[in-house]
TrEMBL record:
GO terms for molecular function: transferase activity. Gene3D superfamilies: Rhodanese-like domain (3.40.250.10). It holds the Pfam family Rhodanese. Coiled coil: none annotated. It comes from Natrinema saccharevitans. InterPro entries: Rhodanese-like_dom, Rhodanese-like_dom_sf, Thiosulfate_sulfurtransferase. Residues 120-139 are annotated as: Disordered. CDD domains: TST_Repeat_1. This is Thiosulfate sulfurtransferase. Residues 128-139 have a biased composition (Acidic residues). Residues 17-126, 157-261 form the Rhodanese domain. The keyword Iron-sulfur does not apply. SMART domains: RHOD. Keywords: Repeat, Transferase.
Length: 267
């Protein structure tokens, strides 16, 4: 796995004293304070980097709001950020995607989650002292961003793109984008270790669904949370042509986009 995208607990443990590595805990504040956290981590709860005017879709918070969050946490644009949660990384992956979109150059996902870290490494209840900084976001230009909208997805349907639905089977069978294949985002997780499965096993799982590095891939779910995890995993495996449908099924249905339902042959 590409360590510039996903890092192991051992990688992070060896850098706890590095001031240029900023650890972000995206769990609820009560978990950060009451259960404990990775030493040196700062708390930026998941709800704080969602668009409060549109929370049902979980959309991006806006560049200025996100910059304020990072600056208040003492994070600078040049820092290496490592994010984690305690839900197999799905909420932390959303943070990673958000930071990428707003131009942070070095942001990574911790392989596993707090429970995985806690199996072998120390935790603490001490809140680190941080000094706020001025953080200026530098959002990606549209042609650089992995995020795509309704029109781009419509166009992808006309090409040989693989539309990947990361939701559960019941959701997929109820309604989905035309021709989509289902790849449950949790399928990449080893239940025992709570970490990602071995790289070769991940590649085989993806290839079984036709999700291969030579294809154009468009990811969607309901509100763009679950696809964040799949996006990070694909990038860590070296996939290059991966689009992230931010509006996901919520926007697709609002625009009366064509859908399918029922079991699919790939299932």
């Amino acid at each position: 796995m590409d360590e510039s995208v996903v890092v192991s607990p051992d990688w992070l443990a060896s850098r706890l004293d590095d001031p240029a590595v900023c650890i972000v805990d995206v769990r609820d504040a009560w978990e950060f304070d009451g259960i404990g956290h990775v030493p040196g981590a700062v708390s930026i709860p998941f709800d704080s980097y969602r668009d409060e005017s549109d929370v049902d879709r979980g959309t991006l918070p806006g560049a200025d709001a996100f910059a304020t969050l990072l600056g208040d946490a003492g994070i600078s644009p040049d820092d290496t950020i490592v994010a984690y949660d305690d839900t197999h990384g799905v909420f932390a992956a959303r943070f990673v995607l958000t930071a990428i979109e707003y131009g942070h150059d070095d942001v990574r996902l911790l392989d596993g989650d707090y429970s995985a870290w806690n199996q072998e490494h120390e935790t603490t209840s001490e809140t680190p002292e941080t000094e706020p900084v001025d953080y200026e976001a530098d959002p990606l230009e549209p042609d650089e961003s992995p995020l795509v909208g309704y029109d781009a997805v419509e166009a992808a349907l006309e090409r040989d793109a693989v539309l990947v639905d990361t939701r559960e089977r019941e959701e997929f069978e109820e309604t989905r984008l035309p021709g989509a294949v289902r790849f449950d985002w949790r399928g990449v997780i080893d239940d025992e270790t709570r970490r990602l499965k071995p790289e070769a096993e991940l590649e085989a799982l993806l290839a079984d669904r036709g999700i291969t590095p030579d294809r154009e891939i468009v990811l969607y779910c309901n509100t763009a949370r679950r696809i964040s995890h799949t996006y990070v995993v694909l990038k860590a495996l070296g996939y290059e042509d991966v689009a992230f449908y931010e509006g996901s099924l919520s926007e697709w249905l609002a625009n009366d986009g064509e859908t399918e339902s029922g079991p699919a042959s790939a299932e």
